[in-house]
Specification:
The protein has helices spanning about 20-30, 50-55, 65-75, 85-95, 105-125, 145-155, 175, 195-200, 220-235, 240-245, 265-275, 300-315, and strands at about 10-15, 35-45, 80-85, 130, 160, 250-255, 260-265, 280-285, 295, 325-330, 340-345. The chain has about 350 residues and is of the alpha/beta class. The chain has twelve helices and eleven strands.
C-alpha cells in the first residue's frame, strides 16, 4: 500500500450519488485522498426527491430540492444525471432475483446501475467506481454474500470500491494499485446509522437526507400496493412515466374494478393534477370548495359517475345533506359531450369504505 498515486496525476472515480448520507460520505472519503470524484445519478422515475416534496405545499419542513444535486453541490463535484426510465422497466417488471419486501427489485437494480456506471467509466476514461454501500444495511442487496455477485454480474469486478465497508471486503484494484490508501477507508457493518452520523459530524456535515428505505418509492408498501393495483386492473405490467408519477400523488380510491378516483389532498397536489385533466375524466366542484379528482379507468354507467362524484363530495366543504354540483369533463375520445354537471349528495366519511382506499 506504499505506492499511493501522485497528486499531479490523480485517479478519477465516479460515485453513485443517491442523495442520501452514505453515498455522500463515501465520496467525501475519496475526496479527502485527493481522488478526482464526479457523481452519477440514475433517473428511474421512482425516486422520492424532487417529486412529492416539491409538489406538496404543506411539506413546509421538507427541503424543496433534488437531494442528489444538493449533495453534489455540498461536495463541490460535478453530477451526471442519466435517464434510464425506459431501460429500467424490465428491471421493475421482470427482476431475475425477485422483489424485496415490496415491489423493490433491489439486487437487480444494483447490478443494473453498476453495469451502467461501468459502461460510463469506460466511455469517459475514469478509473473506478465508488458506492455508499454498507454491509448488512439492506437485507436484499447489501448482504456481504451478495457484494461479490453484484461486482461480477455488473462487470465492474474489482473496479468497484465500497469505502464505508472496504476493510471488511476483499481488496479491490484501487487499493492494490495504491490509487487509494486502504488504511483511510472504513469497516462499517450492520443497520445502525450511528457510525455514519459520527462520520458526518467529523466532516462537519450537518444537513443531509435520512431516507428510511433509500430514495426509491418501490420500497414503500403503500406505493407498491398502488402499482400492483395498476398492473392488476390493466391486465398488464406495462407503465409510462406519467403512470408512476401519478401514483405518488393524491388519495387513490377504487370503489369498483373498472375505475379508480384520484383525489388531491392539498393545494400543491390540486395544481399538479390540473396538468393531467386532458388525459383523464376530471371532476371539479362547482358550488363548494374542495379538491380536483381524476378518474382512471372506464365509466360504464351513470351510476359509476354518480358514485365517483359522491366520493369527491366527501372531501368537499359540503355537508352530507347538501346538494353538490360537480363538473365532469370528459376526454375528447369519450364522445360528443365535453362536460356536464352532476348533482349528488356527498358521501359521509364512513360511506367511503376503508377497503376502497389503496394504501
Amino acid at each position: 500500500m506504499q505506492n499511493i498515486h501522485k497528486e499531479n496525476n490523480p485517479k478519477k472515480a465516479i460515485a453513485l450519488i443517491s442523495g442520501g448520507l452514505d453515498s455522500m460520505l463515501a465520496a467525501k472519503l475519496l475526496l479527502e485522498q485527493n481522488i478526482h470524484v464526479e457523481g452519477i445519478n440514475f433517473f428511474t422515475g421512482f425516486c422520492v426527491e424532487g417529486h412529492t416534496h416539491a409538489i406538496r405545499k404543506k411539506d413546509k419542513n421538507k427541503a424543496k430540492r433534488n437531494n442528489a444535486l444538493w449533495v453534489a453541490e455540498q461536495l463541490g463535484i460535478k453530477l451526471h444525471i442519466i435517464d434510464i426510465v425506459e431501460e429500467y422497466k424490465d428491471i421493475v417488471i421482470n427482476p431475475k432475483h425477485g422483489y424485496g419486501a415490496n415491489l423493490n427489485p433491489c439486487l437487480d437494480c444494483k447490478i443494473f446501475m453498476l453495469k451502467k456506471a461501468h459502461e460510463w467509466i469506460k466511455a469517459n476514461n475514469f478509473d473506478f467506481i465508488i458506492t455508499g454501500e454498507v454491509i448488512g444495511q439492506r437485507p436484499k442487496s447489501q448482504r456481504k454474500a451478495c457484494m461479490p455477485i453484484v461486482a461480477e454480474k455488473s462487470g465492474a469486478e474489482d473496479l468497484l470500491l465500497r469505502p464505508l465497508s472496504a476493510l471488511n471486503l476483499e481488496l479491490t484494484k484501487p487499493e492494490l494499485e495504491g490509487w487509494v490508501d486502504r488504511e483511510k477507508l472504513l469497516g462499517f457493518t450492520g443497520r445502525s446509522r450511528k457510525p455514519q452520523f459520527a462520520l458526518a459530524e467529523k466532516f462537519n456535515i450537518e444537513d443531509y437526507a435520512q431516507p428510511a428505505g433509500g430514495c426509491c418509492f418501490l420500497t414503500d408498501k403503500a406505493y407498491s400496493n398502488k402499482l400492483q393495483d395498476l398492473w392488476t386492473n390493466r391486465n398488464s405490467k406495462h407503465y409510462e412515466l406519467d403512470d408512476i408519477m401519478l401514483l405518488k400523488v393524491g388519495r387513490h380510491i377504487r370503489p369498483k374494478d373498472n375505475f379508480k378516483i384520484i383525489v388531491a389532498r392539498e393545494e400543491g397536489e390540486n395544481n399538479f393534477l390540473q396538468g393531467y385533466k386532458k388525459n383523464f375524466i376530471s371532476l371539479e366542484l362547482e358550488n363548494t370548495g374542495g379538491p380536483i379528482a381524476l378518474i382512471d379507468g372506464k365509466i360504464e354507467s351513470d351510476q359509476d359517475l354518480e358514485l365517483a362524484c359522491k366520493i369527491l363530495g366527501r372531501f368537499s366543504k359540503a355537508e352530507s345533506n347538501d346538494i353538490v354540483e360537480t363538473k365532469v369533463t370528459f376526454k375528447p375520445e369519450e364522445g360528443a359531450i365535453k362536460s356536464k354537471i352532476v348533482q349528488t349528495h356527498p358521501f359521509k366519511a364512513e360511506e367511503v369504505l376503508e377497503a376502497w382506499y389503496l394504501k
